[in-house]
UniProtKB/TrEMBL annotation:
<keyword id="KW-0436">Ligase</keyword>
<keyword id="KW-0648">Protein biosynthesis</keyword>
<comment type="subunit">
    <text>Monomer.</text>
</comment>
<dbReference type="GO" id="GO:0006428">
    <property type="term" value="P:isoleucyl-tRNA aminoacylation"/>
</dbReference>
<dbReference type="InterPro" id="IPR033708">
    <property type="entry name" value="Anticodon_Ile_BEm"/>
</dbReference>
<feature type="binding site">
    <location>
        <position position="924"/>
    </location>
    <ligand>
        <name>Zn(2+)</name>
    </ligand>
</feature>
<feature type="domain" description="Methionyl/Valyl/Leucyl/Isoleucyl-tRNA synthetase anticodon-binding">
    <location>
        <begin position="686"/>
        <end position="842"/>
    </location>
</feature>
<feature type="binding site">
    <location>
        <position position="901"/>
    </location>
    <ligand>
        <name>Zn(2+)</name>
    </ligand>
</feature>
<feature type="binding site">
    <location>
        <position position="904"/>
    </location>
    <ligand>
        <name>Zn(2+)</name>
    </ligand>
</feature>
<keyword id="KW-0067">ATP-binding</keyword>
<keyword id="KW-0030">Aminoacyl-tRNA synthetase</keyword>
<feature type="short sequence motif" description="'HIGH' region">
    <location>
        <begin position="57"/>
        <end position="67"/>
    </location>
</feature>
<comment type="function">
    <text>Catalyzes the attachment of isoleucine to tRNA(Ile). As IleRS can inadvertently accommodate and process structurally similar amino acids such as valine, to avoid such errors it has two additional distinct tRNA(Ile)-dependent editing activities. One activity is designated as 'pretransfer' editing and involves the hydrolysis of activated Val-AMP. The other activity is designated 'posttransfer' editing and involves deacylation of mischarged Val-tRNA(Ile).</text>
</comment>
<keyword id="KW-0963">Cytoplasm</keyword>
<dbReference type="InterPro" id="IPR050081">
    <property type="entry name" value="Ile-tRNA_ligase"/>
</dbReference>
<dbReference type="InterPro" id="IPR010663">
    <property type="entry name" value="Znf_FPG/IleRS"/>
</dbReference>
<feature type="binding site">
    <location>
        <position position="606"/>
    </location>
    <ligand>
        <name>ATP</name>
    </ligand>
</feature>
Length: 931
RNA sequence: GGGUCUAUAGCUCAGUUGGUCAGAGCGCACGCCUGAUAAGCGUGAGGUCGGUAGUUCAAAUCUACCUAGACCCA
């Protein structure tokens, strides 16, 4: 007869193959329909808050693997916090304003449509565009298994958000942190608009190339020669002669050597390395370097005369000067160049002068050049220079020049009025705030401090339409800028109802309080500011706009968690607005994740073909595998991802899943109410693994608290593989299958498996929510009280379980087990045995203590080694036995005595001797009898 | 060019304040099992700790330089 029916084999419907890509959707549906997220959060109402504030992704395009990494990490944080007992609601958000969307919307229109478009229409289209992508991304984020208030996210374009944002702006304005200044921007004279760097295209263009002599203002000595102002010059080179009227300075590199060259009776200052170049280009054959090399530091703050304006030109130092072209002496017009602005204006305080109108024509201030175009001025300038004999050379060259993305025309670099936030005013406070934040990893503090220390003032203005208007008015009479509580309250009221598009819909009078008059001059007519705010001001206000306005949130946030690029971005702008308004950082902790790179550590790019798409991963493997990949990586560094890496994670997943499956199969007849064996009454091996489980709980909990998910991953995986699968489950199978159904030994094992399962499923729930929920549902009646794993509690660490004596004893026994395994393998290689149950083992301890141990535990050794018999033999010698490397025990492997029991498959001398059950051993016979 | 980082077996990670032959799991190879079976068990082979030069009795661990890579800025 077959005895298979008399044993308790695993029994479960829990599928070995997960089929995650399809089944995950079922669980997501269950969560959504039953409001599990809401219930889980509500479950912790009144408990300590743990608020992770979401950095808003930009509402454009589909999510990529970097988004997935970041959002999944956030999900780990909030799910763990909730299970651990914190009140941790998660409100996701989106960043919706800004150039890329405006750009995209415009480029989808014909030229005519674009021309006919009103600002309000444009903004409506932008709104729709953003909303469309929010919907798309929302579904994609939800598909990752990220939970949160997806039905009520925060959007930077929502009226309530905009109101808070201009409130933040107003608070800063009241503290006098804003000022109006000029700054050069890319300007298209045809489209009459400023362009962002993304809208600039560089292309070949023909330009005049001129070398110009600037006369010294006074005589000075340098490099051992004395220079006379009548015949001594600094030589500059430029390809934009029209910017010369705005010249304010000449920049020299502080480190390169300069010299004086004598040529044609004149003394010329230039970089030593470029002398021969310049002479060759200018066609001068006879020249001589008449000075020693000298540092430009000797020239700093001396002056030249402007070649044709009634003005001086200051000699200054700048690291941006190169020796690739020109003379090493750089014409500097702070109104017409970026470096010129930074060095000339911000470092040397020179005027930002750009006498030019929106169409690119020179203004009245430009004197002779008034009304002229840049092309005309190019010619006039060179003529003037020739006239004064200050033009060393004129030629034409082809070079890379910026063009407008739309009309393809040449761009100008031109200073326009901008609003700035003064960083200097709050720098000290900000640096202090940084040191009060906990940075993970810790180098973040230094990175942030360096960044803030070096940061110059924040240009808030953007000459665009898709954004939050800068809520400032200008009095038409006195031209003063007006912003105060009265004007702000009025604007806020209107924005709260109609959103910030109202700024474009209504004239200033409607936006201001009724009959408002200028606080400076009593004037009653006003003009609105046309610029919008930098989008970093949008998201940088989120801590106020979200944390302060939502009832379930609170300021400041416990955590910001973003990619490392956000030191410059969101961490930075949020910090500045928070310090400006509240005097401290908006976060207690900042965590950063690295970027996703390919398996060689290179960044992903379409052209490299190494891009891993989260959608594909989900289709092929499932979101839980993607999440496992996130968990497996030390995200503080850059995170590698490739097919191979994902495949590896799916193998790890399989091991975890099969551990669950084994347990589920073996507790199918287990009723916790009736069959649970309490810890003290369990078998030693069961107690041993329970202690191992406590170690695991301790390690895993601590790893979660430190955001070290890769430690969770490794610890849990090792536990499943080493402790559980190859040891505990392998050994316990015999008890579970063949001992009496209701025997203490079997119930003891089941109770243990149950305890382990309950701890594991909760501990992995933040990482593998779908699988954990699936397991939870399969536990069925046993956990009926809780409808979802996410409504349960974090496993409790049972310190009382610890038992040093037992732990030490089992460490010894398991060492011996390793040696026995090795000995069995040798026997197997000799074809003496196949299955280890075909073996009987003889042992000899290597020490008194070990001999005693073996003697005491003899009873359970066969089960522990999964062999049929174990005997002690103090006659064993090294010649006939294997000497264990781990424990020094001597092991001799023999064929097992007796015959194979048909029921438990062990060999035993009692087999074949029974009356009723001939083919099975005594133990099995008695089990059958008693069932 | 500047700021901040990273570099340990094919892969993912451990390696406290420098000190026993550098560890784990996976993968791989080989074997076993066929009552966890598109599972499970065992054994084994894989590393000049990115490179070079130093400090030291002693360095994967400290210093300098170099190489490769990442983010931000210029």
């Amino acid at each position: 007869m077959s005895y298979k029916d008399t044993i308790n084999l695993p029994n479960t419907e829990f599928p070995m193959r997960a089929n995650l890509s399809e089944r995950e959707l079922d669980f997501q549906k269950i969560w959504e329909e039953n409001n599990i997220y809401e219930k889980a959060v509500k479950n912790r109402e009144g408990k300590e808050s743990f608020i992770l504030h979401d950095g808003p992704p930009y509402a454009n395009g589909d999510i990529h693997i970097g988004h997935a990494l970041n959002k999944i990490l956030k999900d780990f944080v909030t799910r763990f916090a909730t299970l651990k007992g914190y009140y941790s609601p998660y409100v996701p958000g989106w960043d919706t304003h800004g150039l890329p969307i405006e750009h995209q919307v415009k480029s989808e229109m014909s030229d005519q449509e674009r021309k006919d478009l009103s600002v309000e229409e444009l903004r409506e289209k932008c709104t729709n565009y953003a909303l469309k992508y929010i919907d798309r991304q929302r579904e994609q984020f939800k598909r990752l298994g990220v939970w949160g208030e997806w039905d009520a996210p925060y959007l930077t374009l929502s009226p309530e958000y905009e109101v808070k944002q201009i409130e933040v702006f107003g608070e800063m304005a009241k503290k006098d942190l804003f000022y109006r200044g000029k700054k050069p921007v890319h300007w298209c004279p045809h489209c009459e608009t400023a362009l962002a760097e993304a809208e600039v295209e560089y292309g070949e263009d023909r330009a005049p190339s001129i070398y110009v002599k600037f006369p010294l203002k006074e005589k000075f000595e340098v490099g051992g020669v004395s220079l006379n102002k009548d015949n001594s010059y600094v030589v500059i080179w430029t390809t934009t002669p029209w910017t010369l009227p705005a010249n304010m300075a000449i920049a020299f590199h502080p480190e390169y050597p300069y010299v004086v060259v004598e040529a044609e009776g004149e003394n010329l200052i230039m970089a030593k390395e470029l002398v021969s170049n310049v002479m060759e280009i200018s066609g001068i054959e006879e020249y001589e370097i008449i000075s020693d090399e000298f540092s430009a530091k000797e020239l700093e703050n001396k002056k030249c005369r402007h070649p044709f304006e009634d003005r001086d030109s200051l000699l200054i130092l700048g690291e941006h000067v190169t020796l690739e072209q020109g003379t090493g002496c750089v014409h500097t017009a702070p109104g017409h160049g970026h470096d010129d602005f930074v060095v000339g204006h911000q470092e040397y305080g020179l005027d930002v002068y750009a006498p030019m109108d929106n169409r690119g024509y020179f203004t009245e201030k430009a004197g002779d050049f008034a009304g002229k175009s840049t092309d005309e001025v190019n010619i006039m300038v060179t003529d003037k220079l020739k006239e004064k004999n200050l033009l060393m050379d004129l030629s034409f060259i082809d070079h890379q020049y910026p063009h407008c993305w739309r009309c393809k025309g040449n761009l100008l670099f031109r200073a326009t009025d901008q609003w700035f936030a003064s960083i200097d005013a709050i720098k000290e406070k900000t640096l202090k705030a940084i040191s009060e934040v906990e940075w993970h990893p810790s180098w973040g503090e230094e990175r942030m401090k360096n960044m803030i220390s070096e940061r110059s003032d924040w240009c808030i203005s953007r000459q665009k339409k898709w954004g939050v208007p800068i809520p400032i008015f200008y009095c038409d009479d006195c031209e003063e800028a007006v912003i105060n509580d009265d004007t702000l309250d009025s604007v806020k009221k209107i924005f709260a109802v109609e959103g910030s598009s109202a700024w474009y819909k209504y004239p200033a009078e409607k936006l201001l309080p009724k009959d408002y008059s200028c606080p400076h001059c009593d004037g009653s007519s006003f003009t609105k500011e046309e610029d919008i705010m930098d989008v970093w001001f949008d998201s940088g206000s989120s801590h106020k706009a979200v944390l302060e306005t939502r009832e379930n949130l609170s300021w400041p946030a416990q955590i910001y968690l973003e990619g490392t690029d956000q030191y410059r971005g969101w961490f930075n702008s949020s910090l500045l607005t928070a310090v400006a308004t509240e005097g401290r950082a908006p976060y207690n902790e900042v965590i950063t994740n690295g970027f996703t790179v390919d398996d060689k550590g290179n960044k992903m790019s379409k052209s490299q073909g190494n891009v891993v798409s989260p959608h594909k991963v989900i289709d092929q493997y499932g979101a839980d595998i993607l999440r496992l990949w996130v968990a497996s990586s030390d995200f503080k560094n850059d995170v590698k991802v490739s097919d191979n890496i994902l495949k590896q994670n799916s193998e790890v997943y399989r091991r975890i899943r099969n551990t669950y499956r084994f347990v589920l199969g073996n507790v199918s007849d287990f009723d916790k109410e009736k069959n649970y064996v309490k810890y003290e009454d369990r078998k030693e091996l069961d107690r041993w693994i329970m202690i191992r489980l406590q170690d695991l709980i301790k390690k895993v909990t601590s790893a979660y608290e430190k955001y070290e998910y890769h430690r969770v991953y490794h610890d849990v995986h090792n536990f499943c593989t080493v402790e559980m699968s190859s040891l505990y489950m392998d050994i316990t199978k015999d008890r579970l299958y063949t001992d009496g159904t209701d025997s203490l030994s079997r119930r003891s094992a089941q109770s243990t498996l149950y305890d382990i399962m309950m701890a594991l499923v909760v501990m992995l729930a933040p990482l593998l929510p779908h699988t954990s929920e699936e397991v939870w549902q399969f536990l069925g009646d046993k956990v009926a009280a809780k409808e979802s794993v996410f409504l349960s509690d974090w496993p409790e660490l049972k310190k009382a379980y610890y038992d040093q004596e037992l732990t030490a004893k089992w460490a010894d026994l398991l060492n011996i087990r390793k040696d026995v395994s090795k000995a069995l393998e040798l026997a197997r290689a000799d074809k003496k045995i196949g299955n280890s149950l075909e073996a009987g083992v003889e042992l000899k301890g290597a020490s008194e203590a070990q001999l005693e141990l073996l003697e005491n535990e003899l009873e359970q050794l066969a089960d522990l080694f999964i062999v049929s018999q174990v005997e002690l033999n103090d006659q064993l010698s090294e010649g006939e036995a294997y000497l264990g490397e781990e424990s020094s025990v001597l092991v001799k492997v023999n064929e097992a005595k007796g015959d194979k029991c048909d029921r438990c498959w062990k060999y035993d001398e009692s087999v074949g001797k029974g009356e009723e059950h001939k083919d099975i051993c005594n133990r099995c016979a008695s089990v059958i009898e008693s069932e």
